[in-house]
Amino acid sequence: MPGTTPDHPYSPAKRVGSTVYVSGALSVDADYQPVTGRREALDAALDRMTERLSTEGGTTADVVKLTYFVTDLSLREEANQQFAEKFAGTGAARTFLEVSSLPYGASVEIDAIADVADVPHSADSADSVDSAESAESAGNSDIANATATSGRTPMSADDQDYIDRVMTQWSAAEPELDVRPLDVFGRLHRVYLKYSRIMDQTCAEFNITQSDFEVLAALKRSGQGGPVAAAALAEEALVSTSDIPSQLHRLEDAGLIDRIRGFTDRSSVQVRLTPAGEELINRLAREHFTREAELLEGLSDNDREVLSDVLRRLSSSLGTPW
Fold it and tell me: Where is the composition biased (Low complexity) (predicted)?
């Protein structure tokens, strides 16, 4: 089905002590797939998860977690309802559904099952935590050999993050495979997913999408409210030129922008913010940059400068358009 990744690999059910975890991921593009197709894709994904519960994890699970990626956050309610109905009879004590937006055509990599620490535990699951810690300790003796094989500086288990663990596992499984690029791109991808989720939440509070924010912000920056040529707006807003017409139509219907057509050339379109659009982007920008600053609180000013410089050079070396 267009716009979905129905064959995305799902994490198998995982038992840690007396707790069973199961997770899955699904990417659905709302703009390129009818509602019936979206529902069928989600339903099929949930069926695969329940099947794994019965074949690999027993008949019930303590924790069920699905990450559902969409390009339109209006699908959140639909996804939540289907998720609740599907797992109502599994006996799961806790279920979690994460809905995040995803640009059309982007790839999806999920590690929800691996990040067991991200799942809240109740007091009665302490034995599961102890079992997980024991299992982790048992594997620590292999870390030095695996990291040495990959050419990386050995580190203690306490200092390792998820990407470190993945690289260690790859190095142990395929010693000749150079997985060092994952050291960079794995973290970039995980940071992007976490950042994008927060962006979605911020924009949803203002009843717009992340791509809507990019368009409104581009109008605010480029023309101090407009007008800006529609053709130039796509590049400024970092969105596809094919998506711009429908997006501008939606923002115009919401009263946030005006489209002005040329007198002699009707195909020439200028775009500007309305007073309502100006007021919204001003409020949203303040909230947006406040939250971005909070995300960087763990870095010193020097760290931020170094990181910014390195990312700038990486972007330039890749020949990215923005």
Answer: 122-138
Alpha-carbon distance of 63 to 308, in angstroms, equals 38
Helices (H) and strands (E) in the chain, counts: 11, 7
Of the candidates 1, 5, 83, the residue with the CA atom closest to the CA atom of residue 49: 83
Yes or no: say if 24 and 111 are a contact pair by the CB < 8 Å rule: no
Strand pairing category for 63-70 and 19-28: parallel
Residue 314 to residue 316: CA distance in whole angstroms: 5
Higher pLDDT, 169 or 103: 169
Hey, CA dihedral for 155, 158, 163, 166, is it positive or negative? positive
Going by the DSSP 8-state scheme, the letter that residue 10 receives in this structure is: P
Q: Which two tokens stand for residue 262?
A: 């040329």
**CB neighbours of residue 188 within 10 Å:** 12
What would the two tokens of residue 237 be? 């807003």
Can you tell me the distance from the alpha carbon of 112 to that of 94, in angstroms, rounded to the nearest whole number? Answer: 15
Nearest to 196, CA basis, from 7, 27, 39, 44: 27
Render pLDDT for 117-171 as a digit per residue (tens, 0 to 9).
Answer: 333 333 333 333 333 333 333 334 343 344 444 445 554 444 567 888 888 888 8
User: Could you tell me which residues are beta bridge partners of residue 4?
Assistant: 28
- Token pair belonging to 13: 């059910």
Q: Is 20 exposed, middle or buried (0-12, 13-18, 19+ CB in 10 A)?
A: buried
Q: What is the pTM of this model?
A: 0.51
Q: Indicate the residue type of 155.
A: M
- Bridge partner list, 27: 69
Any idea of the CA torsion for 58, 94, 100, 169, to the nearest 10 degrees?
A: -50
22 backbone dihedrals φ, ψ, rounded to 5°: -140, 140
Instruction: Look up tokens 């129905």; give the residue.
Output: 6
